[in-house]
Design goal:
It is built from two helices and five strands; from the N terminus they run ααβββββ. Helices cover 20% and strands 22% of the residues. The protein has a five-stranded mixed beta sheet with strand order 1-2-3-4-5, covered by helices on one side.
Length: 113
């Protein structure tokens, strides 16, 4: 649960950051997260690690982030757009090297059991 909560926290921060960029995720990186939420440990596209949000893709067209649970299971979260009707989707992979929101695959844990 902590890994999933960490990804939702990071997504909330990302959504807040997009208000000044017209809905684009393109300017999101570890520095922008750090300035907004100093307690959030975020890095560029790195392998998923416990307690660290890996920003696997941050573009005008979408956002993909990954982390790892203490048990070693990877989780990712993606969102196609910060505007409109886009909803976040979760997956159970390390989305290292993601090139689109479709790279966050596996069981969608954001939609419930």
């Amino acid at each position: 649960m902590q890994a999933q909560e960490l990804l939702f926290r990071a997504l909330g921060d990302a959504m807040a950051l997009t208000t000044s960029t017209g809905g684009s995720f393109a300017d999101i990186d570890g520095h922008t997260f750090g300035a907004m939420d100093p307690g959030l440990d975020a890095a560029g596209d790195v392998p998923a690690r416990v307690g660290v949000v890996s920003i696997n893709l941050a573009s005008h067209d979408g956002l993909v982030m990954s982390t790892k649970s203490r048990s070693g299971r990877p989780y990712c979260i993606s969102m196609a757009s910060a505007t409109g009707s886009s909803i976040p989707e979760g997956g159970t992979v390390d989305a290292l090297g993601a090139t689109s929101v479709r790279d966050c695959t596996g069981k969608n844990w954001t939609s419930g059991p």
